[in-house]
Amino acid sequence: MKISYWIRAFRLRTLFLSLSCIWAGLICAQILGKTAIGLSIFTFLTALFLQILSNLANDYGDSVHGADHAGRKGPARTVQAGLITKEQMKKALALFSILSFVTGCMLLYLAAPHIGWLGVSILFAVGILSIVAAIAYTNGKRPYGYAGLGDLSVFVFFGWVAVLGAQYLQTTSITQEAIFLSIAYGCLSIGVLNLNNMRDIISDQTAGKKSIPVRIGLPAAKVYHYAMLLTALVCFCLFNFIQEKSIIWNVVIAIPIFFNVRLVYFAKDYASFDPLLKWLSLSTFVITCLIQISL
Fold first, then answer.
1. Spatial CB neighbours of 81, under 8 Å, sequence gap ≥ 6
2. Tell me, what's the pLDDT at 189?
3. Rg (CA), the chain
């Protein structure tokens, strides 16, 4: 089995997104002057393993349910293309479920002295739910992604859980800055998913996958996309306002967001949405770098 096949299945371009969300939470902890290296490392590792688990589960689930096929506009998925067998993918899902669980437990072990056992219990439950949600998105008899609930799940786990959870693990508190950033990163994450779903409208309709773009149509899905990105920009501006940053930082952050709005506006066909996923994911990472620099 070629390593390149697994790297393709990991979908590296999406990893910038999940790591940026965690980094945002750590920035909020940094503002309070509380960051522990060990906690930070295991937070990043857990997020990384969960993102890979989600990507592998999506590859497997969409192949089983028929959303992935030869006529799909996006890049060929590994199971559907026969590069990785279903049995091999099942083993990989088990492996990354275990890795996510182990690093998550290590994270909670390190955080236990200051978040207490009640906090550990709650976050343990959230961690288990994260693993289940990553797999159940496109797998099982009734995958919730096929009911159009993927956007809500992405907002909760990439926004609230990632940003607020990362700050809470470090500081045992949740600040206004973290709340605004959690909404911003949740909206940007929805934007990445929405690009994926706009690209796959035809194949999703055929497979009975009722994503938001399938339900409302491409023109309305574009408006929905603009709303998510602009909501994120407003939240970034509110974050900067609380931090008493110069208005120039709002302008700087607005540049990559409006760049992505423009790309979507001029997208001419379904296939043209595919490269935009990478741009929005990288733009999210760039924005996170800018926020860190502003501090």
1. none
2. 96
3. 19
Name the residue ranges covered by the structural domains of the chain. 3-294
Helix (H, G, I), strand (E, B) or coil at 139: coil
CA dist., res. 28 & res. 19, Å (int)? 14
Strand locations in 81-130 (E): none
Question: Which value, to the nearest 10 degrees, does the dihedral of the CA atoms of residues 139, 107, 88, 136 take?
Answer: 0
Q: How far are the Cα atoms of 27, 166, 252 from residue 104, in angstroms, in the given order?
A: 20, 12, 35
Tokens read off for 237: 């501006």
Taking alpha carbons only, the member of 15, 7, 26 closest to residue 177 is 26
Buried residues in 41-69 as b, exposed as e (16+ CB within 10 A): ebbbbbbbbbbbbbbbbbbbbbbbbebbe
Number of Cβ atoms within 10 Å of the Cβ of 86: 11
Instruction: Report how far residue 90's alpha carbon sits from residue 150's, in angstroms, rounded to the nearest whole number.
Output: 22
Answer yes or no: are the C-beta atoms of 213 and 282 closer than 8 Å: no
Question: Residue 213 to residues 1, 14, 197, 201: CA-CA distances in angstroms?
Answer: 36, 20, 6, 7
Residue ranges in 137-175 assigned as alpha helix (H): 150-154, 165-171
Q: Which two tokens stand for residue 245?
A: 């940053």
Closest CA to 184 of 213, 162, 211, 216: 162
DSSP 75: P
CA pair distance 148, 212, nearest whole angstrom: 6
Point out the residues of the chain with pLDDT beneath 70: 1, 65-76
Pick from 28, 162, 41, 172: nearest CA to 112: 172
Tokens, residue 289: 């770098």
- What tokens were used for 5? 């096949």
CA triple 135-137-139, angle to 5 deg: 65
